[in-house]
Amino acid sequence: MNILVTGCNGQLGTEMRKIAATDESHEWFFTDIDTFDICDATAVEAYFERHHIEICVNCAAYTAVDQAEDDKELAEKVNVQAPRLLAHACLRQGATLLHISTDYVFDGQGDHPYREDEPTAPVSVYGRTKRDGELAIIDSGCHYVIVRTAWLYSSTGKNFVKTMLRLADTHDTVSVVCDQKGTPTWAGDLAQTLTLLIGKYRNGPVAEVFHFTNEGVTNWADFAAAIFDLAGKPCKVLPITTNQYPTRATRPAYSVLDKTKIKQALGIEIPHWRDSLAKCLKEFTIK
Ligand SMILES: NC(=O)c1ccc[n+]([C@@H]2O[C@H](COP(=O)([O-])OP(=O)(O)OC[C@H]3O[C@@H](n4cnc5c(N)ncnc54)[C@H](OP(=O)(O)O)[C@@H]3O)[C@@H](O)[C@H]2O)c1
Q1: Ligand 1 proximity of 151 Cβ (cutoff 6 Å)
Q2: Residue 102: CB within 6 Å of ligand 1?
């Protein structure tokens, strides 16, 4: 199969590249904004035709959650209009779009893990654009698999794990919010799962939304403490409330995702977030 991965220099895209490096059963095409802007309608159409794309894994996105509040136009372009263009290109080619979305499509007022069919109600520009991107794909009529994930990190790119490791080198104590619950997700585990989804749905037709995160539930303060513990950093965590750490964008207070559907569809067990964090941290020491 000819598989296009957009946003290949991001956290998830980088993990997809690592997997593809040892996979000779598909022809992989890796692009990022420097080679292929997914907001450019002509470029999207031409790329799909020229390379006979059969599966598009859209790892590209506008992911700066706070910045999006002031940069609505670009967030809308990358997270809504571009997925619409990719979906229409897939429709024309009979290809399948594997698109990544977020726990931020929910308002976070829930008290049980969110299922795929529960109503969305984003509370930030980022969340709203990601939700509208999902709807644009669904409305297009293309074959699609949408995977919502949460609290993504890896050894590359900008993320919470890297920020905490950096702070630990210069601080004895860091203040971290303890009243937002969710599940950290290692991009390496998500990338593996995407390849299983490609295997299962490669021949379409398909129209599915799945939730995927690592197992377990935590909050940012306990996540930070686990990072310091596993990385052997003496830094301490001072738990604070969201009110004590105001940010430009509102975050959902509770964004745990129910993964029953993807576990049943793929027959998989998902690693606990702490085990995957330990694995990812080893990559930091190897570098
Ligand atoms: N990070 C999280 O915590 C999180 C949580 C839940 C869901 N997600 C979703 O998971 C997916 C992957 O996230 P990630 O953390 O891997 O993102 P990321 O590291 O920010 O990577 C996104 C990549 O897309 C590129 N890009 C931006 N605009 C583009 C355009 N117009 N054309 C082509 N490429 C473009 C970016 O380039 P530049 O860096 O140059 O902009 C970057 O290389 C996204 O859909 C995101 O919404 C992420």
Answers
A1: yes
A2: yes
| Torsion, CA 12, CA 18, CA 24, CA 27, rounded to 10 | 40
φ/ψ of residue 101, rounded to 5:
-130, -165
**Confidence category of residue 219, pLDDT binned at 50, 70, 90:** very high
Atom of ligand 1 nearest to the CA of 13: 16
Residue 67, C-beta contacts closer than 8 angstroms, at least 6 positions apart:
248
- Name the residue among 167, 143, 182 with its Cα closest to residue 54: 143
- Kindly list the structural domains of the chain, giving each domain's residue range(s) and its CATH number in brackets, ordered by start: 2-159+183-215+255-272 (3.40.50.720)
What value does the mean pLDDT of the chain take? 97
What's the burial of 22, exposed, middle or buried (CB within 10 Å: 0-12/13-18/19+)? exposed
Determine the pLDDT at residue 284: 81
pLDDT confidence of residue 286: 52
- Catalytic option among 104, 126, 144, 254: 126
Nearest CA to ligand 1 atom 8: 102
pLDDT at 287 exceeding the cut of 60: no
> Which residue among 5, 18, 33, 147 is best mutated to probe the pocket of ligand 1, counting the most ligand atoms within 8 A of its Cβ?
33
Instruction: With a cut of 90, say whether residue 15 has pLDDT above it.
Output: yes
